[in-house]
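Q: I'm writing up a methods section and want to include an example of the input and output format. Could you take the sequence below and give the corresponding predicted structure tokens, formatted cleanly so I can copy it straight into the document?
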Amino acid sequence: MFFFDLDGTLIDSNGVWKHVDREFLARRGIPYTHAYYEGVAHTILPLAAEFTKEFCHLEESCEDIIAEWMDLAKDAYTHVAVKPGVRAYLKQCRAEGRRMAVVTSSVPEHCRTALDKLDLARYFEFITFAHDLGLEKKNPDIWLQAARQGGVEPERCTVFDDSLSACRGARAARMRVVGVYDGFFAADEREMRSFCDVYIHSFEELLWLPEQKARRK
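A: Here is the clean output for your methods example:
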């Protein structure tokens, strides 16, 4: 079974949250630093809010922080673009009889909005939300939960993700990992290439060649 991350893997949306983070901090006169980025880039919203509250010494509650983030994000997910080659690759996987699902740290509301707007939801059997489980994707338990939901053994699963920490979590769950390039995590490319079973800059690299298509007809 194939498990796909959403942000930065299927859709070009990581920039949405970078903008949200910068604007949120700017309102408080706080610089956007690499240390802050590391604290919020790989986690789910509730944990990111806890980190932000402590890191920035804020008086606001975590609930208020999340509410402000959601307001800043607003309808951004209705305008995100699908990444190159994704639509064709999902269509190819369907033609091969692949089972597919989404495993994401994205807010459920945003995830469903993007998948519906881009007409991608029809390719996936289900969505596993880290947000609902209270798990980060570096935790192998979320991947094992997705495998259980799909009724498959972890060893028979392949994960597509742009985050090194998520790929490590999937590998710890005994899954095959395909690293997907995204500019948001560009600094991790060398390590991703050495760690992942396969590393791609675009899903276009995984599409059948014309002669392969002809043989399959």
